[in-house]
Amino acid sequence: MKIIALMENTAAVPDVLSEHGLSLYLEGKGHRILFDTGQSENFAVNAKRLGVDLAAVDLAILSHGHYDHGGGLKRFLELNQKAPVYLSVYAFEPHFNGVKDIGIDPKLRESGRLRFVKEKTVLDEGLELYPMTEFSLKDPVDSGGLFTLREGKRLEEDFRHEQYLLIREGAKKILISGCSHAGIRNIAGWFEPDVLVGGFHFKNLDPRGEGRAVLEQAAEELKKHSACYYTCHCTGTAQYGFLKERMGDRLHYLAAGAELTL
Questions:
Q1: To the nearest 5 percent, what fractions of the chain are helix, strand and coil?
Q2: Residues 6 or more apart from 222 whose CB is under 8 A from it?
Q3: Ranges of the chain whose pLDDT falls below 50
């Protein structure tokens, strides 16, 4: 399995763009997979610079319905004429951070290429999609001040639009997450993967203040699992540094332009 970070908040190599967002390109199990599209068309610029042919992608996935993961979807659909795009049936629900709309373009709903997921979906042998609604929460979800609208009512975000890609290679399990809004500790426990790639959504936790205890506990809990973690995006660089000191070689960072072979 090969993974190339097409977009992330930081860049690992020169001449690669960065932005607040995430996009990963995966090769394995006989597929070329695009996982998320960043917040703009810049993921496609990076793909060209990194030698990734987006037109050859045969399968695309959106981890959830936020702009920083699905903002480049329109551009992908223009560049690629064949790949189906798998996203949650709830992805186009309105999503807000305060007064800011952080959802994805509702006009894209009419694309004939979208495949809406509501339950565990087998994409191919060794490729499985799991909505977060398939699981029970051990740790409660923190809305982080985000909210959604349902039937005209403003509700705290429960992230029911989040989904995860599980890749099985023999006995090895590789899990790809986007922001892990359902809680990285929950997710690691649900899947018990050998490798977990994705954001931890700790960016709002101050390791020098009240967030320190939460990060300490997360590091200890994550080390109890056997997974090797590759994190990015919404984890936060200061938070990553704090976790890295406690998790050592169990934790690594995946910036735009980085390539990973598993």
A1: 25, 30, 45
A2: 184, 185, 188, 229, 243, 247, 250, 251
A3: none
